[in-house]
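Board notes (copied after class):
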Amino acid sequence: MLFSNAALVERVAEICERYERPVATWRQAREILRLDMP
């Protein structure tokens, strides 16, 4: 089954809302994943 990036982001946002967890910003996500900042 293939999903678009937009569909995956929407699904993760729904899960975050269900568990009352904030959605990370792109900067927070890069920090969590220890990726270099652009």
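Comment from the instructor: The two ends are 32 Å apart (CA to CA). Helices lie at 5-18, 26-32.
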